[in-house]
Write a structure and sequence with these properties.
Oligomer: single chain
Strand content: 25-35%
Shape: globular
Keywords: Membrane, Transmembrane, Transmembrane helix
Pfam families: FecR (PF04773), FecR_C (PF16344)
Low-confidence stretches: 54-63, 94-114
Number of helices: 9
GO molecular function: sigma factor antagonist activity
Organism: Flammeovirga yaeyamensis
Number of domains: 3
InterPro entries: FecR (IPR006860), FecR_C (IPR032508), Ferrdict_sens_TM (IPR012373)
């Protein structure tokens, strides 16, 4: 097997296991689109993955059966037989073992129950972009997990632990429901973000209308630009107006400020870049900031603020800064 092919097989395995970075996803996508042979190789490894879905990870992998099934499907579609070389069979088996390793590692660490008709996504140090069977697009943040039930019934239901952004395909006959341990989110077709970190559920709506329901059945309706928050013990979920762009920094890597108070800007930067900023000049809190940043590093953001607001920024430790 060529070295490049080994690299692409690893990327395919990481893609199928939901443990691939955005940059790696782009690299894999470009490779798949490069030739029909690459496309067939990708589909073949995907066929092996589908033969080892959760619930079957302890069983022996019948690679020959999976590849034969895939060959028959291709033959039917194209009217000709596709011959698979021995190295393709070996790479498929290796890929299957890789995805099983990724899957079992996640299931063991998160104590997730494996069910045949549940599609599971999980991330560790990178985000994941994928499309569900109904055409809805999900973006899963780092260290998050999503279990999607079959869409055969009257609703499209899933359970989230962590954070994810949903672009939901509209279907009035099948409500789209995201369950969390703090409450449920229900929509028909819209775009929204769900975060279950910090012992609460936070829902941010970027388009459409979303219903956030607490366990006690109390709920709030959230239109575009609104954010709903519910934590255990609250009587009803809270509803606030937020800067949607800044709330979605983890996905788009963008920050926007328009006549924003300096203290608000500092908090947004701390959250976006996971840093701690100490302000040693109370006069700065009276300043207003109007600026935008697109895929900028924390150093770049602070340099712009330093120049435009005539202040001084010092890095005091890893992820810690002092402004005076």
């Amino acid at each position: 097997m060529e070295e490049n092919q080994k690299i692409e097989d690893i990327l395919i395995a990481k893609h199928l296991a939901g443990d691939i970075s955005f940059e790696e996803e782009l690299q894999l996508d470009a490779w798949v689109k490069k030739s029909e042979e690459n496309q067939l190789h990708f589909e073949g490894m995907k066929a092996v993955w589908e033969a080892t879905q959760p619930g079957k990870v302890s069983a022996a992998v019948d690679v020959d059966k999976a590849w034969n099934k895939f060959s028959e499907e291709i033959e039917t579609k194209k009217g000709k037989t596709i011959q698979f070389t021995p190295w393709q069979m070996v790479s498929a088996a290796v890929a299957a073992m890789l995805v099983i390793f990724f899957g079992v590692r996640f299931f063991q660490q998160s104590n997730t129950t494996v069910v045949d008709d549940v599609q599971r996504f999980a991330t560790t140090t990178s985000t994941l972009l994928d499309t569900l069977n109904d055409g809805s697009v999900i973006t899963l943040n780092q260290e998050s997990a999503l279990a999607v039930q079959s869409f055969d019934g009257n609703s499209r239901e899933m359970t989230l632990d962590g954070e994810a952004y949903f672009e939901v395909a509209h279907n009035e006959d099948q409500p789209f429901i995201v369950h969390t341990k703090y409450g449920d989110v229900t929509v028909l077709g819209t775009k929204f973000n769900v975060n279950t970190l910090d012992n609460k559920v936070t829902v941010t709506v970027t388009d459409g209308l979303v219903k956030l329901t607490a366990p006690n059945k109390k709920y709030v309706l959230l239109p575009k630009g609104k954010q709903g928050i519910y934590a255990s013990g609250q009587a009803v979920p809270l509803k606030n107006e937020v800067n949607v762009v800044n709330e979605m920094f983890w996905k788009h890597q963008k920050l926007e400020f328009k006549n924003a108070e300096f203290q608000e800007v500092v908090k947004s930067i701390e959250k976006a870049y996971d840093v701690k900023i100490e302000v040693n000049n109370e006069n700065l809190y009276h300043k207003e900031v109007t600026s935008s940043f697109d895929h900028e590093s924390i150093e770049g953001v602070l340099q712009v603020m330093e120049a435009t607001l005539n202040l001084r920024v010092q890095k005091t430790a890893d992820k810690q800064y002092l402004i005076d």
